[in-house]
Amino acid sequence: MSAPKSARPDLVRPLIWEDDTLYMLDQRVIPAREEWLPMNDYRQVVEGIKDMAVRGAPAIGIAAAYGLALAAKNGDDFAQACADLAASRPTAVNLFWAIHRIQHLADHSFATVLAEAKKIEAEDLEMNYSIGRFGSLLIKNGWNVLTVCNTGSLATAGHGTALGVIRTAHSDGKGIHVWSCETRPRQQGLRLTAYELMKEGIPFHSITDGMAASLMRAGKVDCVIAGADRIARNGDTANKIGTYSLAVLAHHHGLPFYIAAPVSTFDLELADGSGIPIEERHSSEITQIEGVAVAPEGCPVFNPGFDVTPGELITGIITEQGVFEGPYRFGESDFSPVHS
Ligand code: MRU
Questions:
Q1: Would you say 13 and 19 are in contact if contact means Cβ atoms under 8 Å apart?
Q2: Rg of the chain's alpha carbons, rounded to an integer?
Q3: Over its length of 340 residues, how does the chain's per-residue pLDDT go in tens digits?
Q4: How far is CA 52 from the centre of its chain?
Q5: Which atom of ligand 1 is least distant from the CA of 149?
Q6: Distance of alpha carbon 340 from its chain centroid, rounded?
Q7: Residue 318 Cβ contacting ligand 1 at under 6 Å
Q8: Cα separations in angstroms, 35 against 19, 28, 31, 60, 103
Q9: Annotated catalytic residue: which of 26, 124, 209, 229?
Q10: What DSSP character marks residue 191?
């Protein structure tokens, strides 16, 4: 599949809108190949989100916004397009936030919807730079930073959230080293975060998820930074499965545990994390690797994609508006993420 003309090898972007087409970088085949999927129908975007050609909370919100631009261009039933896109993945609230924002536009003409999608993407990039600046202030020289999943350019409009903090700290000359958790079952850490860190020359080692505890005990981790898919008013945070374990481990070892996320990741309708829908994905993600069976045929598995870290285990939540410390009461205090 040919790359869009504006794709740049030195700049990772998950989505490019060009010539009235949405190009989606297929994250299922990275790092083996960099393949762009041209999309001219919102239904292709729905499939791309469902099958995780695009993934990461902010990126799926942006993809949905461009999907609605395609629906507007093609004269599709707009309400149906919104419903189909909203049904693509359940946990990351950014998806619903973006759809909601477009639903509430004065009109759903192609020009208006496309302009809003571009705005959502541009704002996300700016928010990530800001998250990076606030987060970098928390990182001390020479720290070993542990992260999980992929929260980088691939998961956002660019730069990233937790990985954006790491990027900024690196470019600020902090001399950091990253421990990047593999993130079973889909290996977003091993495949995608490693791909981004290598492109930028940020020192790191990939580790399997079970190694974090012994590294902490050995004094080889100074802090943990993770992203988020949905944050409730009390700071309870849904993120990639395994994040909660890292928070418990960090607490046990007296290490700071940070979450980095933009306003689009806050769900102020939820008092706590108990109401966050947790996606369950297909068993084959666990029983197969690259299509090869690694479990006995018929092996029963449980495959939730996310877990919820209680707010009290989170040292600070790094947003584009600053760093917030618990006890969290989002929406009641000075911090009021905007949900239109
Ligand atoms: O299933 P994924 O790969 O979409 O999960 C992604 C994560 O959990 C990320 O940490 C989160 O979306 C934040 S991305 C900036």
A1: no
A2: 19
A3: 689 999 998 899 999 999 999 999 999 999 999 999 999 999 999 999 999 999 999 999 999 999 999 999 999 999 999 999 999 999 999 999 999 999 999 999 999 999 999 999 999 999 999 999 999 999 999 999 999 999 999 999 999 999 999 999 999 999 999 999 999 999 999 999 999 999 999 999 999 999 999 999 999 999 999 999 999 999 999 999 999 999 999 999 999 999 999 999 999 999 999 999 999 999 999 999 989 999 999 999 999 999 999 999 999 999 999 999 999 999 975 455 443 3
A4: 12
A5: 10
A6: 21
A7: no
A8: 18, 9, 10, 18, 31
A9: 229
A10: I
Ligand 1 near 128 CB (within 6 A): no
What tokens appear for 113 in the block? Answer: 């919807």
Q: Could you tell me whether strands 316-319 and 257-260 are parallel, antiparallel, or unpaired per DSSP bridges?
A: parallel
Q: Give CB contacts under 8 A, 24+ apart, made by 5-10.
A: 7/36, 10/199
Domains in the chain with CATH codes: 15-126 (1.20.120.420), 131-324 (3.40.50.10470)
Phi, psi torsion values for 37, nearest 5 degrees? -105, 110
Tell me how far apart the alpha carbons of residues 39 and 142 are, in angstroms, rounded to a whole number: 43
Kindly report the pTM of this predicted structure. 0.97
Q: Report how far ligand 1's centroid is from the alpha carbon of 60 (Å).
A: 9
229 within ligand 1 shell (Cβ under 6 A): yes
305 within ligand 1 shell (Cβ under 6 A)? yes
Ligand 1 centroid to residue 29 C-alpha, Å: 17
Return the best residue to mutate from 50, 55, 186, 267 for the ligand 1 pocket (most ligand atoms within 8 A of CB): 55
Q: Is 135 in the pocket of ligand 1 (CB under 6 A)?
A: no
35: which residues sit within 8 A by CB, 6+ positions away?
Answer: 1, 25, 26, 29
Question: How many angstroms separate the alpha carbon of residue 51 from the centre of ligand 1?
Answer: 14
Asked about 10 being catalytic, the answer comes back as no
